[in-house]
Amino acid sequence: MSALLRVSAGIDAVNTFIGRSVSWLILIAVLVSAGNATIRKIFDTSSNAWLELQWYLYGAVFMLAASYTLLRNEHVRIDVATSGLSKRTRDWIDLLGHIFFLMPFAGIMIWISWPFFWVSFRTGEISVNASGLILWPAKFLVLAGFVLLFFQGVSEIIKRIAVIRGDIEDPTAEHELPPAVEEMETGADLSERMKNK
């Protein structure tokens, strides 16, 4: 299990680096958007390339940071429904969800997005918009995002098995419930204490 945990740690390190790095693309996208708007207002000119660059940048953040979001346990979940269950039951739900839902979905998306990207790359596909950008980098982001998500799924499965076996402490314990659910539980505890006074 220690060798698998080292593999998991390596995957986590790569996705952490990528996730933190691509977050800077939001700033670049905002600057591109502001610059484009300013040029359009002052010089009454614009280019579709600037608009397409914005969605390239947002798409890069969305696709490449998805695996980091999973690593940090900050993705959309049904914690409101499962928060009343025991920790061990939630661990099993996570493990089975990763194995039977996340991994097949990510695998299918990799299988579908490879030809989607490759045909675009091979043909030099360009946007149909005037002065538009080449499209294969955007299509590559779809493929890359699902590859990263697939490997992060492998890492999460390894860690969840280790947690269930008692080999490691839960690395997501600090992110176990989203803030809204924690506030609901805190509010419920507070109202219960007020009744008892």
UniProtKB/TrEMBL annotation:
Q: Where in the cell is it found?
A: Cell inner membrane
InterPro entries xrefs: DctQ, TRAP_DctQ
The entry's cellular-component GO terms read: plasma membrane
Instruction: Return any one Pfam family short name.
Output: DctQ
Question: Does the entry feature the keyword 4Fe-4S, yes or no?
Answer: no
Regions that span the bilayer: 21-43, 55-71, 92-114, 134-151
Segments forming domain Tripartite ATP-independent periplasmic transporters DctQ component: 31-161
Please give one Gene Ontology molecular function term for this protein: transmembrane transporter activity
What is the protein's membrane topology class?
Multi-pass membrane protein
Give the keywords, sorted.
Cell inner membrane, Cell membrane, Membrane, Transmembrane, Transmembrane helix, Transport
What does the annotation say about its assembly with partners? The complex comprises the extracytoplasmic solute receptor protein and the two transmembrane proteins.
Q: Which family does it belong to?
A: Belongs to the TRAP transporter small permease family.
What job does this protein perform? Part of the tripartite ATP-independent periplasmic (TRAP) transport system.
Q: What is this protein called?
A: TRAP transporter small permease protein
